[in-house]
Amino acid sequence: MKITKRWLLMTALSVFVMGGLIYGSPALAAKEQVPLVGAVTMNAHPKSLEGKTVVLRWNSKFNGDKFLDRLAELLVQKVPKVKVVKMYQIDPSTAAVSKDMAESLKVAAKIAERKPDLVIASQADCGHCTAMLVVDQLNVEKKGIPTVTITTTAYEKVAKAALKEQGVAEIALVPVQHPIGGRNDAETKQLVDGAFANIITAATQWQPAK
Predict the structure, then answer these.
(1) Dist CA 1 CA 165 (whole Å)
(2) pTM for this prediction
């Protein structure tokens, strides 16, 4: 049988898609075992970001840096005297999906050194990265710093399931249309622009349950 380049390409694509459906499945991801952060008190959010320091943290997931770059532009344009710190540029070691609790604690400590008033992290868009981003954000909260977590619509339920496993009722989640990865620059810009109002609302109006 003659094997054509087209056949090989279609076979490879099928394997890739099926692998994504199986290993990237939100249903399976929700069952992943992740380290437990222990007791955590969620922090009150500032009523305004004016004059505040906002750390943007990227966990290395595709296009998340471009998402946060555009978010940084909008924050500077629209929020007076805000100071934006791109953690992924200042300390590239933080631009990774934490492998375990030890790495997560190191990331939280490095973020805390910047003395931010708020941390916005991107992004929860796969099984393991979603579970570990929740761990990372909760470890930041344990440092007394409020957080906002960007998730895609496909993994919002996974993020909430990860929170439930941690014994936390809720966190400031901002779902954006799945996917973040795979978009060109114009599409990423449009995605961030459309989500900006919700991100600001989560940053300044979300408060922990009493």
Answers:
(1) 52
(2) 0.86
